[in-house]
Amino acid sequence: MHPRVFAFGLACLAGALAVPAAAQGVRIPGAQQAPTLAPAPARSTTAEPRAADFIVAVVNSEPITRNELAARVARISKQLAAQNRPLPAGDALARDVLEALIVEKVQLQAAREAGISVADLAVEQAEASVARQNDLSKEAMYRQLRADGISPEQFRKELRAQLLLQRLREREGRAGKVSEFEVDQYLRDQQPQNGAAALELNLGHILIAVPEDASAAVLSEREQRARTIAERARQGADFAALAKEFSDAPEASQGGQMGLRPAERYPELFVNATGALAVGGVAGPLRSGAGFHVLKLLEKSRGDAAAATVIQSHARHILLRTGAQLSEAAAAAQLAEYRQRIAAGLASFESLAREHSQDGSAAQGGDLGWSTPGRYVPEFEAALEALQPGEISPPVVSRFGVHLIQLLERRQVKLTPREQREVAREALRQKKADEAYANWVRELRGRAYVEYRDPA
């Protein structure tokens, strides 16, 4: 199985009730990136007098303390100030942060009950990823964290919690089916409102010609023939074969394809008839002076080259699946040894992948082909983005196991209409997965026993 997931959408969430951001989105105080409002590690109080602690809430028998809440409130207050955003009035911020902590705890409890765990290797990998994203070494990262009152132990604890929540989201966020109509609507919504992006269509066309002086009987026979062809096309018959057999149009020998072109280059009759169709839909028969037309919408896109241009990566990997027989640490050690052998010229990546990889790509030497951003799970994607062509990553932990990844090359391409639709489909799947997970979390929160306590 390829390490594929719904379209990659683990950006930091800004609301106080949001789920914590994935570890790949953590920003270090004092680094160049602007801080986010995602819940962050609690502040260490070793350098300050410690206030009297007490329990402010109990979540399914697990307490939330006053110091835990105060640390989180202080952290978010600092983030708001750094963004020049006003603080909520009165106790509103503390109430929102307390609710966020409750939601966070019920999710972590659900993850533990489901047997989800995060090994030390994954936490170390997340540490390195955070440091890299902030253009810091791990040592410099921890110096900045200590200056902000966050101990390495607390930071690693928070990373582990975020990874647990990420894996819980992958498990519980199940996307529904995405229809062709939804893809069409998504693509329309993404277009500029100023009309700069012209509609482009590729239509399949079958013409049943009618002579100018045709009798009523001939006209009726040709119309019935067109209706029969249209019905066969709607029932799934091969449109290209129908065009070659029956069409009187010049493009019949090309299976009726008229080619991708701006909508204004098509007859208005054709554009109006296919405007509401999803890709694959059939219209007709339509009457014109030439005869009866049957149309199939083969492709639809907007001629906005900038919006359709992406950076693609060509990668290969070796995957070792972990479990009772192979721990993550042992798999990582084995892959690190493979990496050393490749660097020393004692083996090739391709041969090691064919021999050892436990993935469907093994037969191709681990080759995963070209991918657009968002194809892979977050850990894999983050490691791939950090590589230069030809480089091999250290061992990378994901929910599939442990990977050794090599970036072969990158390219900037304009997506074909079909590829644009697939990108849109993945974005919609991710949106549905996020919505499904949010609904699941709300239900989880609703079932939780929460007891609020006043200070003694």
Secondary-structure map:
Layout: E1 55-59, E2 62-65, H1 66-82, H2 92-113, H3 120-133, H4 138-147, H5 152-172, H6 180-189, E3 199-209, H7 216-234, H8 239-246, E4 261-262, H9 268-274, E5 282-288, E6 291-302, E7 309-320, H10 328-343, H11 349-356, E8 367-371, H12 378-385, E9 396-398, E10 401-414, H13 417-447, E11 450-452
Low-confidence residue ranges:
1-49
- Described by its quaternary structure, the protein is single chain
Order of helices and strands: EEHHHHHHEHHEHEEEHHEHEEHE
Q: Assign the CATH class of the largest domain.
A: Mainly Alpha
Describe this structure in words.
The structure is a single chain. With about 450 residues, the chain is of the alpha+beta class. It folds into 3 domains: about 170 residues, Porin chaperone SurA, peptide-binding domain (Triger factor/SurA peptide-binding fold), CATH 1.10.4030.10; about 100 residues, Chitinase A, domain 3 (Roll), CATH 3.10.50.40; about 110 residues, Chitinase A, domain 3. The chain contains 13 helices and 11 strands. The longest helix is centred in the C-terminal third of the chain and has 31 residues. It is extended, with a radius of gyration of 29 Å.
